[in-house]
Amino acid sequence: MAFRSFSPRSGRRFLGIIALAIVFYNEFLVYKIQSLSWKSIPCQSGNCTRILLVADPQLIGQTFDTSFYNPLAIHDSDRYLKKSFREVLDHTRPHIIPFLGDLFDEGSVATNEEYSSYLRRFHDIFHTDSSIMKIYVPGDNDIGGENGEIVTPTKVNRFKSTFHTKNTYSWNNLIFYEANRLTREIPQPSTTPAPPYSSQRRFVLSHMSLLFYNDAFQERVLRYVLPHVIFTGHLHRSLFIRKSLKLSEFTRAHPLNANSERHMVNSFDLRDAETFLEIMVPTCSYRMGERNIGFGYAVVDGEDLLYTVLWSVDRFAQLFLYLIYILVCFIFLTTKLIFTCSIFATKKLQRLRITYSKV
């Protein structure tokens, strides 16, 4: 009787309310809830530089995936990146935003028209105030180098002219150098690096890891720049490497901000002249297949580098919630259809019995 009193209209109303609640939670509320877990990094010295690190957004292209749902995938991925970036931007209020490569998924194979389309989407997603200094580092998906794809001067020059890249960038006492393992370009300081006791702080930005590979390129970059910190992407995970001045020693990457320490603020002493430090920033795109994605947040506070990861919303969990809702709707409507058909069949059988009895 309870199910019979549950009319189709009330059932549709109930499913509609649930749908609105899920959409509101998935597309709006969950981003605010996630931001509550992020750590703020207060400035102790009174003169800090805040750095927001973006790695491997890899905006979906139009060449490799020609399926009918690709436009929907592009829309969902772009919207997710835009909302996630907007939240971390409000939380960090950065002075500098380095983009650590693989800005586009198909940048290296895109036509000029496609490239312009990807660029418009990129600037719409990562729109910021003009007062923020932005640094763009090319990745293998931007200029080639992945799976045997050739890096050509045309691809490199297109990226450089599009994003107005330079070899070095300065902000107060901070100097950022781009090291490109793909082209083997090594940033050479215009002057000899300042001694360890000076206030100058040198950072190397690279898409691919610098310390993980013991080769001539690594050695030349380290000897030319003597970086205090290296920021990289490419591996899509949050890791760090400490390497001594003995460049030939075995290198191992360790998890950073993982498990119970995922919201921890890590402190690194920039006066450490005995080791090199590399921080690998996780991807910010759920399309990379990683569940743990987010943005790197670093604050240079006097002699210390404070770093944490601002983890993003698990989009796969959101999509799974939509799938569960669709499944519930299917079960509900199927059950309702079966119930309605059984009532219709019962009434028809009763009419036949009445007609037969009269005869």
TrEMBL record:
GO terms for cellular component: endoplasmic reticulum; membrane. It is a multi-pass membrane protein. It comes from the Eukaryota. InterPro entries: Calcineurin-like_PHP (IPR004843), Metallo-depent_PP-like (IPR029052), PGAP5/Cdc1/Ted1 (IPR033308). Residues 50-237 form the Calcineurin-like phosphoesterase domain. SUPFAM superfamilies: Metallo-dependent phosphatases. Its main location: membrane. One of its GO terms (biological process) is GPI anchor biosynthetic process. The chain crosses the membrane at residues 319-345. It is found in: Membrane. One of its GO terms (molecular function) is exonuclease activity. Keywords: Cell cycle, Cell division, Exonuclease, Hydrolase, Membrane, Nuclease, Transmembrane, Transmembrane helix. This is Putative cell division control protein/ dna repair exonuclease.
